Fold:
Amino acid sequence: MSLILRTATRYLMPLLLLFSVFLLFRGHNKPGGGFIAGLVAAAAFSLFAIANDVRAARALVRVEPQTLLGAGLLLALMSGLLASFGGGDFLTGVWGDVHLPLVGELALGTPLFFDIGVYFVVIGVALMDVFTLAEETVAEETELLNADKKERRR
Amino acid sequence: MNTLLILPLITPLMVAAVSFLVWRRKAWQKWLSVGGACMSFVWACALFESVRDGEILTMQAGGWAAPFGISLVADTFAAVMVLLTATMGLAVTIYAVRSIDERRAAFGFYPILQILLMGVTGAFLTGDLFNLYVWFEVMLMSSFVLLALGGERAQIEGGIKYVTINLLSSAIFLAAIGFLYSVTGTLNMADLALKIGALPASLTAPLSVLFLVAFGVKAGLFPLFFWLPASYHTPPAVVSAVFAGLLTKVGVYALIRTFTLIFAFTDVDVDNLLLTLAGLTMVTGGLGALAQTDARRVLSFLIIAHIGVAVMGLGLNSTRALAGTIFYLIEDVIVLTNLFLIVGIMGRVCGTFELARMGGMYRTHPMLGALFLVPAWSLSGVPPFSGFFAKLALVQAGLEVEAYTVVALSLVVGILTLVAMMRLWAEAFWKPSPYVVDAAQDKMQTGKMLLVPVCALSLMSIGLGIGAEAVFGVALTAAGQIDNANGYIEAVLGVRR
Structure:
């Protein structure tokens, strides 16, 4: 693994993750949103996996990609269902004003939670793919290396 | 009660989502799926109960008014199909608990099965063509995973054929949707019914054929069916069963919806084309079944033959014929799922699906032999069973409009089915076993749990035959709604045509 890539990743990763959160929140009224933000976040973790190794990347994510996927799906579903509990149609936006100290009035709605759900689903799916494929490649390479060593010993 | 429309859809998704959270605990996933399937069944029953008298429920997702948002619509036909989906979902989930190996479970068999069921339910409930395409994709993706899961050589080969031809059909479907949108500016089915009449036949005729080809591939109609027998016999029996019972029927459902709701309001007349295709489908399916030597391939060709019979009702195009088609679909879903499940048990007992190497099961498993005869006779249309009444309605409707050729063919296909079924029975049960069978070991392999869904579905076949009058009444209500689309349009758009 190259030193340049590893060093660059150390600076790029926080930027990418911050950018993904920015995209997520911006997406409500402007270009952006949960899907693309999730891809950017997944790209950040994938970059880390390439620069270091998959095991380190898995440790960095802390939870399994499947858990992210399931939690995201549930969050998106719940945000859609909230309207149904109130007697409205499924997925109808429910809005409420939240008063936060220092920030002031904040309009919070279910579309935001739906988007966050999408964000986690996309990260989960992308990381599941990347990690699985990367682990398979590593396993194959080690196998080849071992075979090579045996060959040489003979 | 708009929420009732969404419940059978989100229950499987919820189960799948929670299954992802407990990814490493296979036992939890198993029982979650069984619980979810039970819940879906309850919701589907409630939905059916509330529309069986001819009411039409609608829901506009996100609260966006009809032609702009996505509408979910449950008329009697859709609710019947949703109920069937939930019933089959419950049956195959219980069957899967005892028949799916740990390795497949570890790769997420249970959540993916739930997502497949969600896709099928969504396709039945949607009132929007593009949304229908999305549900088709959900079905295609999950069915591809189920087909290839396990990674056996035959599975991959069948999976490639399946996915290639289905992607092609999806592409044609998508292109047709694009063309339709560019000339009408809407994809809401009810709104399309209002707007498509203004178009010249030179536009609508090619469009209707595009839809016919796209859905014909999914349904397994005559020249486009070859992917089905090439792939359906490769996965585990429980996967074949849910494919056989539900997936092709979604194609038929989509054909019925588009040609009775949308293209019925144009000058295009595809009835004769549909009848010709139906006739050819029946004959090729029936003859193909006789030529096969693998039990599951025999059944695969029978699926095709009976899709032909169902499409015949659409081609005859009268309320009675449509009611016959709906009755036929109900019967077909239950019977074909059941047959694949039983053949799955037979395959476990014999260790093979090759007819030549099966045998002697009448001695070791007489009950199974009797159980096999119920769906076999029902599919062939032998009187006390449900298949007879469904076909009777279709034949009567055919004679009313003097379509003698296709009626004769539908009777011939009944005989072909009977011959194919009896050949299967004789080979597997009657013929002495080519090997010395260790009876004690066989008893263990069958597993009592596997017989539970099989018995339930067989009882359902018998019940449909006994209660044919009531079932046909429901089918007539549904057919009446389809035939006179004004109720549907009014329910979705809130305006009279």
User: Anything to note?
Assistant: Residues 153-184 of chain B form the longest helix (32 residues). Residues 270-466 of chain B form one domain. Chain B touches chain A at residues 2-3, 6, 10, 13-14, 16-21, 23, 59-63 (CB under 8 Å).
